Amino acid sequence: MLGRSPVDRSVLLVTASAFGLRVFRLGEPSLWYDEAVSVLFAQGDLAGVLANAATDNHPPLYFILLHLAIALTGMSEFAIRFPSVLAGTLLVPLVDRLARAVDARHGPLAGLIAGWLVALSPFAVRYAQEARMYTLLAALAATSCLLFVRALRGEARLGVGYAAVTSLALYTHLYTALLITAQAAGLAVWLATARKRPLAIGVQWALCQGLAVLLFLPWLEPTWRRVVADATYWPGTLGLGTFVWLTAVTLTGSEWLPGHLVGIALALSAATAILGILTMRGPTRRVGLILALLVVVPVVALYLLTSQRPKFHPRYLIEVQPALVVAMGAGLAVLLAGGCSPLRAIGRALGLAGLTALTALAVVGLSRLYFDPALARDDFRSVVAYVEEYAEPGDGILAVGGHAQPAVSYYLRRDLPVYGLPPGPILDLSRQLDLTVADALEPILSRHERLWLVLWQDQVVDPTEEVTRLLHSVSRREGVGRSFQGIHLQLFRPTGGIRLAREQSISNELQTRFVDGIVLVGYDLRQHTFQPGETIELALYWQAEQRFREDLTAFVHLMGQVDHIYSQIDRRAGGDGFGTSRWAPGRTVRDVFRLRVPPEMAPGRYVLEIGLYRPETLARLLVEETGENGILLVEVDVARGSE
Question: Parallel, antiparallel, or unpaired: how do β-strands 604-613 and 631-638 relate?
């Protein structure tokens, strides 16, 4: 039992510290999209919670628990995040016990250090302060691993408890399957080195893991349905380098560090974890190898799953963190265990320095997590408060993307209608808006004197800016007095008829074809004379004749008569969220470029050159008719600047 020794009492103190770090400023950040969806799904009766979860990518356990918590404590930001705080706090004694089960020699000290590292981890704190299922997953994963290791070391009666806990983890997040895979690999290692009854142990654990999966069968059909229909990510590939880097910096908490400290944090984390595994001796050696598999196998398996289907975020690997910090704790415990020889004294000094450095890095990361405005969550609370302060009778609110509607509705207290385009709380990248959005937008405009437009991830669902362009065509944009973290707010007042266009209106039509099947069908340029320092707004209209597997880069150059480039912009054709790999053949894509005229530019006549190239090789696409690698599109005049 905890509390009988100085080390045990220290674990209790670390646990209390973890709780304090997780409740600190808990209610201050605004809810963001994922949290608002959690609240939405957790409301109503239990049957409704299950029905909501069946439409989501995540199983229902967390939503059920949040439903019960809301019934007890209400719906404040603090209250709905508090279950995650409890799970995150419980992680400290769990990793302590896991370390003791793994390391026969240095278990208590390794457990205390592992608990300290997870208590201070910016990664663990970040998700313990979010109304999502990830800290619950980490706590259940740690419990599953603890029962697994203890049962392998002789406590066979824990097998049924292991099956129950692992099944609960499956009902929390589907990627628990990665942990089960790692445990199966660890079991294979254990059986290969077992001296007694390997067959009996193998059958027993096959039954236990089978029971865990069997208990999940009632949710298998909705899970499979959602996996097949999932459209919350862009098709494509995930590079190994990107995957490894994102995973490493997130699991080690380095994501929240200044750039010059990231390498130090990664090196210390890797060195201590490897040391902890390599220095295990005797019967502990096998368990140390299993510990390594609990870290490595889920990471490798997730990459294999997502490399060609890139539905990925490093938080999906939070189930790996307990084993990782236990390995780090074991490594530091080996150094700190001490002795009288000069070599051991050096080891103690290194261990103390390593622990001090990891602690200092965690403190830096936490301070940035708590206080750095650049890392703050998108501020839906302030957006809605501003709208409520200045809204007039007859106003409405339109959220683009529509999946932001739950976050807006959570904070809204006034009786203002909220619409979402495209509708629905779950992001669906197969439903990007085009001109047919006019059918939904017209009746919304007809009901309201003014329309507040909340733009969040609009570049993903409305990459060609159809909603704002249609609103500008029939409305007058009015001023909004402030800006917000991560969200844009605009206000429109309809000025007359609200008949919206259903077809593209292109001022200057072309049919200029590039050799690889991209056609420039036209462009818009509202004015042709500019003052130095002004911005040229050029809209290009593209069509793809076939599916592209790559994202091309488009360029716009402001050129002089002797081919000198005075100003330029190079970026992904279609924008970052709508590259050529996502264009449907035959769809017209409106692509707006804003190019600044240099303040020192001399008066005269210039030309806008446009073109496309492959970013990997910088090779330009040729124009089919001329064989040139660009198009001299239109001349513009730069007038004499005002004195």
Answer: antiparallel
The candidate with the shortest Cα–Cα distance to 488, out of 457, 461, 517, is: 457
Token digits for 159?
């097998």
pLDDT value for 341: 65
Tokens in use for 30? Answer: 């605004």
Q: Specify whether the backbone of 517 is left (phi greater than 0), alpha (psi in -120 to 50) or beta.
A: left
Q: What is the dihedral of CA 493, 497, 499, 500, to 10 degrees?
A: -40
563: phi then psi, degrees, rounded to nearest 5: 65, 25
Distances in Å between the Cα of 329 and the Cα atoms of 8, 290, 555 are 15, 16, 52
Q: What is the pLDDT of residue 156?
A: 72
Q: Which residues contact 89 (CB under 8 A, 6 or more apart)?
A: 15, 18, 19, 22, 128
Quote the pTM value.
0.88
Q: From residue 33, how far is each of 59, 266, 407, 411, 518 by CA, in Å?
A: 18, 30, 6, 12, 36
Q: In the structure encoding, which two tokens stand for residue 372, read together?
A: 């750095």
Q: How far apart are CA 382 and CA 390, in angstroms?
A: 12
Taking residue 565's Cβ as centre, other Cβ atoms within 10 Å add up to 11
Q: Answer for the pair 481, 426: CB distance below 8 angstroms, yes or no.
A: no
Token code pair at residue 68: 């019960």
In this structure, what are the phi and psi dihedrals at residue 431, rounded to the nearest 5 degrees?
Answer: -120, 50
Q: Is-contact 113 333, C-beta < 8 A?
A: yes
Model pLDDT, residue 643: 45
β-pairing, 450-455 vs 395-400, is parallel
| List of E strands, 52-180 | none
Cβ-based neighbours of 419, under 8 Å, separated by 6 or more: 396, 397, 398, 399, 402, 405, 444
Dist CA 104 CA 372 (whole Å) = 42
pLDDT tens-digit readout, 195-214: 776 677 778 888 898 999 99
Question: Parallel, antiparallel, or unpaired for β 418-420 and 395-400?
Answer: parallel
Residue 340, Cα to own-chain centre: how many angstroms? 49
Prior bond to 406 cis, omega within 30? no
Residue whose tokens read 């609370």? 381
Nearest in space to 504 (alpha carbons), one of 428, 438, 458, 593: 438
User: CA-CA distance, 428 to 598, in Å (whole number)?
Assistant: 40
Q: What is the pLDDT of residue 641?
A: 60
Burial (0-12, 13-18, 19+ Cβ within 10 Å), 495: exposed
Question: What are the C-alpha distances in Å from 303 to residues 180, 238, 247, 311?
Answer: 16, 8, 10, 10
The H or E element spanning position 209 is helix 198-216
DSSP 378: P
Query: How far is residue 515's CA from residue 512's CA, in Å, rounded to a whole number?
Result: 10
Residue 29's contacts (CB-CB under 8 Å, 6 or more residues apart) are 77, 129, 376, 377
Per the structure block, which two tokens stand in for 359?
């602690």
Low-confidence ranges of the chain (pLDDT < 70): 1-4, 197-198, 338-341, 641-643
Q: What is the helix, strand, coil percentage profile of the chain, to 5?
A: 55, 15, 30
User: How buried is 403 (Cβ within 10 angstroms: 0-12 exposed, 13-18 middle, 19+ buried)?
Assistant: buried
**From CA 64, how far away is CA 78, in angstroms rounded?**
18
